[in-house]
Amino acid sequence: MTVSVSTGALAGIRVLDISRILGGPYCGQILGDHGADVLKIEPPQGDDTRTWGPPFRDGVASYYHGLNRNKRIQHLDLGTVAGRDRLLELLAQADVLVENFKIGTMERWGIGYEALAQRFPRLIWCRVSGFGADGPLGALPGYDAAVQAMSGIMSVNGEAGGEPLRVGLPVVDMVTGLNAVIGILLALQERHRSGRGQFVETTLYDSGLSLLHPHAANWFMDGRTPQRTGNAHPNIYPYDIFRTRTEPLFLAVGNDRQFASLCQVLERPELATDPRFDRPGARSTHRVELKRLLEDALSAFDAIDLVDRLMAANVPAAPVLDVEAALTHPHTVHREMRVEIGPGYRGLGAPVKLSRTPASYRHAPLTPGTDFDTDE
């Protein structure tokens, strides 16, 4: 069955997603949310992430469900001639290909970009890889946690004086998927002028390095190796978690006006004029003394009530919520960041909101499909 896709910024764009695991499928899901017709090709046994659980529903892990909505699924064995021939038929209809095979695999099958660029001159071919095809690490497989380790991310994540720590979500994979979306959109825009597709590449390694702000900027300027600072920002203070009479709260005070307002709410206005704290650089330099004084003042306040008062005074502050509390927060619902498709799918909504061509949620994960839509 085909479903007409008449809305969405990418309506009419046909995407062939032959990727697996996270970065590529995440890219494909975003394109699908914004109206692209996405056909996902999986091997006969399915994407590996179907087994990455628990939890499971009908034998398929939640991990898979979180990355593969707004796609229709077809199974092909690209290791066979018949599977590759079918892929070529689909490429003739596609605007975009997203793939993350180990570099050299598709070339070995005779269906790499160089072999097919002349045959499909308008095709935008997006490769997601670990390290790219060449260079000292070229063609090596890449994994999120390993790239977090070698790109410097783990070195600045964790408690001050503690061990390096992996960020608690696959941030490198996800930002690589986002970069893939950006690259595809850039190539689609350029195709309007030239009429030609091109090769788009995003790598986990490049994407991991791209996340190092402000640590990279600091190192480029002064040559000092950045250190772990726990919840505290390396350049700004108070930008940290603080104890109160009840739960902890997070303060993200970035300028003198916000700091003065914080001091007023805490009934410690003298701190705003103290020479140790009256400028952003001074507050960062004297952060140990400042944290002690702030937590002394905060000990008289209830965290939830205080957050409301601080936000009303334009002081950035937040409670520290767990995942359940965040996903059930009234503002999460208001922002349409929880979506449902039919009775069996719930997931996160699209964070990019467009006024005329909003995201839509048309296909639950595992929707079967044999071809691109023809009813446009």
UniProtKB/TrEMBL annotation:
It comes from the Bacteria. The keyword Transferase applies. InterPro entries: CoA-transferase_III_domain (IPR050483), CoA-Trfase_fam_III (IPR003673), CoA-Trfase_III_dom3_sf (IPR044855), CoA-Trfase_III_dom_1_sf (IPR023606). Keywords: Transferase. GO terms for molecular function: CoA-transferase activity. This is Carnitine dehydratase. It comes from Bordetella flabilis.
